[in-house]
Design a protein that fits this description.
19 strands; multifunctional enzyme; 50% helix; lipid degradation; eight-stranded mixed β-sheet; lyase; 30 helices; alpha/beta
Length: 694
Amino acid sequence: MSTETIVAQSRQDDVLILTIQNPPVNAFSPGVPEGLKAGLDAAAADDSVKAVVIIGGGRTFVAGADIRTFNLPREQAPDLRGTIEKLDAFPKPTVAAIHGTALGGGLELAMGCTYRVATPDAQLGLPEVKLGVLPGAGGTQRLPRVVGAQKALDMMLSGNPIKATEGKEVGLIDRLIDGDLLSGAVAFAREIADARPLPRISERGVDGAAPEVFAAARQGIKKSHRGQLSPELIIDLAEMAASVPFADGWTAEATKFMQAKDSPQSRALRHVFFAEREAAKIPGLGKDTPTLDIRRAGIIGAGTMGGGIAMNFLNAGIPVTIVETTQEALDRGLGVIRRNYENTAKKGRMSQDDVETRMGLLTPSLDMGSLADADIIIEAVFENMDVKKDIFTRLDAIAKPGAILATNTSTLDVNEIAAVTSRPESVIGLHFFSPANVMKLLEIVRADKTSETVLATSMALARKIKKVGVVVGVCDGFVGNRMVHRYGEEARRLVEEGARPEDVDAAMNALGLPMGPFQMSDMAGLDIGHAIRVHRARVSGEPEPDGWLDRIVKTGRKGQKTGGGIYDYDETRKPRPNADVQALIDTYRAEKGVTPRDISTEELTKRLAYTLVNEGAQILDEGIAARAGDIDVIYLYGYGFPAYRGGPMQYADEMGLQNVVADLERYGQTPAPLLKRLADEGESFAGLDASRGR
C-alpha cells in the first residue's frame, strides 16, 4: 500500500484534510508517518492552505502504535516521535478530528496537533502501562501540561481511557462535534485559521504539580503496580514535565521508553497481549464454523458455583432457569445472588433497577423438566462422577435437540460423562473458576466427540459473558488444576523437607502472585484438596493419604471457612501462623525420620515455578493445550500469575530453558521430554508456538 493510499490528501477550499486509512484500527505502523509528513510538507508549501485537519478513516482515529513494531530496530520502527516533532513545529494550525479511539500513540499524535475536536463518545487514553511501557512520543510531557499533574498521573498509571466529554471538561478536547465530524472539524479549522500565536502544548506549564502529588503516586503504585518498572518511570517523567524544560523531558522520555520496552516485564506483557488473542482462535476451526443462538440458559445447582455461573448469564441479559433439589437450597442460592447484586449497587456500580432487571431474568425451579427449552444447560453440582452421570442421563431425556449440555467439573473425565448420553457431540466441559461471577477464566474442555459447532458456540459465549475462554483437552484436572496439583505436591514436599508454610507462600508472593500455594489452599478449603487426594488414592488402589496437610484437615481445620487451616484468620482474613500446626508438622517430620533443613528463597521459588513449567510442557506434549501461550493465559486469569511475568511458560523462556532444566535436575525432578528437547536445541516455548503457526 502506497503512502498516498495510507494517508489520503484532500481539500475543502483553504483546509487540507489528511485521512489516515490503515484498517482495521489505523494503527501507527509503517506508511502512516511518511504519509502524514508528506501531507504536512504539501500544506507548508501551499500558501492557499490555512489549516490542516487530521482524521481517521473508517471506525476510529488512531488506536495506538502497532505493537508488532516494538521488536523492530529503532531505525525501522515507525517514526511517531519525528512526526509529532514536525507537527509541534508546524507554522499553520493543525486540528485532530477524533472519533472512535485515540489511544497511546494516537492520543500523542492528537496532542502534537494545535487543536483537538471529537465526537462526544470518542475514547481518549494512554494505556501503555498495560504493556509494561510508557507513552514514548511526548505523552508524559504533554498530558500533564494539558490536564494537570494529578489527572495525567491517573490516566497514565491506570491506562484507562476517558470519554471525550470528560476530555472537554479537563481541556484535552477543544470542541465536541455532535454532527458530521469532518464538517465540524473543517468549520473549526477555519475559525482558528488566523489565530496567533499557535497554542502549542509544549509551551505550557503544569498545574497542580505539588511534590506531594508525585509522592502519593509513588506510594500508590506499591500496591497497585507492585514490582513493576514502567509506573515508576511514568511518575519520574511526569515530575520532569513540571520541573524541567519540555525539550529535556522529551529527551528523557525517549531514553526511559527504551529502558521500559527492552525490559523482561514489557516483553512479558506484550506476550500476554498476543497470547490472549491467540487463545480465542481454536486450531482447526475456521471463522465460518456455524454457532448456535443462546437465548436461554439452564443451571443445575444453586450453590456457590451455580449461582456465580448464573450471574454471568444474567449480566449478559440471558434468562436463566436455575434448578435445585430442595426449596431451602434454592432459596439460599437466590438469596446469595440477590445479596451479591445489592452489594454491587451499594458500591455504586449498578442501580437498584439493574438489580431488579437481572433478578427478573432468573427463574427458580425444583423440576429439572423446566430446562426443556434451554439452549444450554450447565451442571454445577459437587465433584462426584456418579452424581454427574445420573444428571446427564436425565438431561439426555429432557433437553431439546441441539441443546448444549455442559459440565462445570474441574477434574473429572468429560468423555465419561458424555458417554451416558445419546448425543455426546453436544456435551462439553465449561470449567468456571470460583467465584464464577468474578473470575475471568473459562476452561472450555473439548471432549472426543464434541462437535465443532458446540465448541465454536462455547467460545463465542465466553466472549458474550465477558470471560476469557481457552480450549483444553480432557485429562485429570485439564490444564489449570493438573498443573496446580503438581505445584501443591511440591509445596507440601518443601514443608516436609524443612520450610515453613509462610516461607513457601512468601517466596511466591515475592514472585508477584497474590497468594502462595498454602494461602490458596486455605481459601479454597483444605477439605476439598483432601477429598481429591482420597478419591485419587481409592481409584489407584493406594492407601488413604496421611500427609501433614491431611492431618490438619482431620483436626477440623479446613481453611478460611472455619477460621483456620494452615493459618489462623480473623475478620480481616489476614493469615497468621499457628503454633499447633507447626507442632503437627514437626511431629510428622519426626515420624518420617526427616531432619529439617534451611531452604533458600531461591530454591523455593525455582522449585515451585519450574514445577508448573515442567507439567505445562508435558501438557503441551500431550496436546491437552494447543499453545504455550494458552497455558499462560490460564495461569494469569485463573491463578493470579502476575501478567508482568507473562505466565509460567513465558517466565521459563525469560529464565532460559537450559537453566530451567538444569535447576529441575539439581532439585531432583525429571524434566518433561518436550522441555528437555527445547532446551537441548536452544529453543523456547514462544518459538514452539510460532513454529506450529499459532
